[in-house]
Amino acid sequence: MTTVLSLPVLGPLVAAALMIFLRGLAVQRFVSFFALGVSLVASTVTFVNIWDDGVIRVVRMSGWPGSFAITLVADRLSAAMVLVATVVVTIVLAYATGQRAPDERSSFYHPVYMVMAAGISQAFLAGDLFNLFVAFEILLMASYVLLTLEGTNEQIRAGTTYVVLNVLESMILLMAVGLVFAATGTVSMAELPARLAELPDGVRMGLHLLLLVAFGIKAAVFPLFFWLPDSYPTAPSSVSAVFAGLLTKVGVYCLIRTQTLLFPGELSDLVIVIGAATMLVGVLGAISHRDMKRILSFHIVSQIGYMIFGLGIGGVAAIAATIFYLIHHIPVKTSLFLVEGIVARDSGSSSSEEVSGLARRSPILAALFLVPALSLAGLPPFSGFLAKFAIVRAGVSDAQWIGIAVALVVSLLTLVSMVKIWVGVFWGDVSPVEKASIPGVLRHQKTMGVSTGAIVLFSLAIAFAAGPLYEFATKAAEQLLDVAGYVAAVRSS
Question: Which one of 96, 168, 184, 356 has the fewest CB atoms closer than 10 angstroms to its CB?
Fold first, then answer.
């Protein structure tokens, strides 16, 4: 089990190292998919085992003692996140090979992509704050390269904003980790709950706020979200799809750990306000644009607001709803960005001012957009409906009436913005741009279409398995709130 748990991190890193010397595109593709296949098997085994018995798995790399070792910890939440992340990065890589974009043909794309995949898995499995910081740096350095690999002026400009804000986030996080160590003498998440509780209230609150700011920048919460809608639309669709589906969710995952393990129940009112504001600001940005990619980028912010709102409410029901929302949102948002990539590649644009009538040319592509769009808006019977219903129900139990009102209004406005894309891009007459392009949107893009279909099916599978998955999310929430159980499991390993 020790080897299995570490494979989602070590496998992609070894593949990246090999591809520094193996520059052939066909060889790099083989190595990448082989490494991700191994990671997928390992993460599936870990998830199934934890689903069965709920026992927390712990690995201390190279056999070092707990105070010095790189510690990987898999509980229900982290095991689920690693599995979902591995599925998504594998499907998106297949999409990128079909897209045949200049960045994917670069000898740097595949090794950098593998480094990013390793960083994401390491962040989900990190058992101490410094290891988490290192994971952030690994995935952020890789994301810098992927964001600007094509080297266009727009990418360089947006990439500069992205780099500056994330360097600031890294500095804040490193400062927070250093101050936590100075105040407590440890960075182990198993030792920190007891030691943080012994600190004076002011010191503990200061450390808490630093971590909230650092992870809040990564999660793109209000008022720290402004970098995201400017950066993500400039990246190639295969890159922005991974960023949209996973990178911000790493920040949300870290906020969940912070609020449940390190500072349980503290600053909950502030987190609720941040969640409601994030929902509202994101959806207002979405309805003010007409370009498909910018609308979807603002909706990343908006949907994160629901998760933060549920996290702020706290308790088993609200945390379970947040976990289910987090898992559901990853494939839904990724699939929407992949559809946008097909539209932009075929039509040269994804703006409703330049493209229309795609549903007449390709009903398949229209369906691939419609299913995740309706789920994002929260309509039954899709997984988004259950996720939002669970968040609202938890809010009702906690009498968070203003937050509930915001959540319902934002859900309605999300539907409006999805209808705007549908009417503008997919409905109506075929535009002059479309008439001049190659007919049949998916005809020459089968790999892209199949990959997009696979991730849409993945999102539908979450809806079909909503009952067992929500039960799993409830058990994961109970495990997160059982701080003493986490501490005992890690320290005894």
Answer: 168
